Structures are given as structure tokens and as C-alpha cells.
UniProtKB/TrEMBL annotation:
Residues 41-56 have a biased composition (Acidic residues). This is DUF3775 domain-containing protein. InterPro entries: DUF3775 (IPR022254). Residues 25-56 are annotated as: Disordered. Pfam families: DUF3775 (PF12616).
Length: 136
């Protein structure tokens, strides 16, 4: 974990509240996809209709990410990269700059393609000396 002086302000580039909301929603969406994949073989027409509510959750998450500004999206992508070990906490700024330069066409699609996104975002925060527990 990167050590951070309590007096030192770290500019994550996105609010912890937004990261918490995205991490929680990503966990719920990815968990429902996993459990849905196991149950799909036995579903009838009625079961397929029930999945529409879960898709709305994913659509809402995609919309939330799409509504973030470019800097916030880049920060979120960089945080995911730090969380999965592509970069260290000390390299966060470099990761954020690269995320901006890559200009990922659909940040929500990219992020939701990362397995265990919620956990990875939380690990990224931990690497930066931050915590979702800092949000209430």
C-alpha cells in the first residue's frame, strides 16, 4: 500500500462516493450475471422476463459511468488498473494520463468487462491509501 501523509491531500480525480456507488453496482451486476448464467439452462419464458430488471441495473450503471466527465472516467480506469496490479499506487498519475491518452471509446463497456470490478476498485483505493469506508 502506498503510504500517504494524513495532511497530504490526494487528488483521486473522482469522488469516493462515486467510486463506492460504481463498485457496489458492479458487484451486484456481475453477481447477477454469474448466478443468471448458472440458472439459464432451466429458465422458461417467465424466467427470461425476470432478467429485465437486472439489465436495468446494468443499464443504470452504464449510464452513470457515461455521465462522468472524461477526467473522472480516466481516474476510474486508472484506479482499476492499480487495483488489478498493472500499476502501483505511486504510478497512479501515469496510469490516469495513459487512460486519457487511450481515449477508450466506451469506458462503461471496458470497465464492466473487468472481472470482479467492484473488488478491483476497492483494491485500487487500498493501494492508494484510501478506503470506501471513508464514505458514509
Amino acid at each position: 500500500m502506498a503510504e500517504r501523509d494524513d495532511d497530504e491531500e490526494f487528488d483521486l480525480g473522482i469522488s469516493l462516493e462515486s467510486v463506492a456507488a460504481i463498485a457496489d453496482a458492479a458487484r451486484a451486476v456481475q453477481e447477477s450475471e454469474e448466478s443468471g448464467a448458472l440458472a439459464r439452462d432451466d429458465e422458461d419464458e417467465e424466467g427470461l422476463d425476470a432478467d429485465d430488471d437486472e439489465n436495468m441495473d446494468e443499464d443504470a450503471l452504464r449510464a452513470f459511468i457515461a455521465e462522468l466527465n472524461e477526467d473522472e472516467q480516466a481516474s476510474l480506469i486508472a484506479l482499476a488498473w492499480v487495483g488489478r496490479g498493472d500499476y502501483t499506487g505511486d504510478e497512479f498519475e501515469e496510469a490516469r494520463t495513459l487512460a486519457k491518452e487511450r481515449n477508450i471509446r466506451d469506458p462503461a463497456e471496458y470497465l464492466l468487462g473487468i472481472e470482479s470490478l467492484g473488488d478491483i476498485l476497492e483494491e485500487g483505493l487500498d493501494e492508494l491509501g484510501l478506503s470506501l469506508e471513508d464514505t458514509d
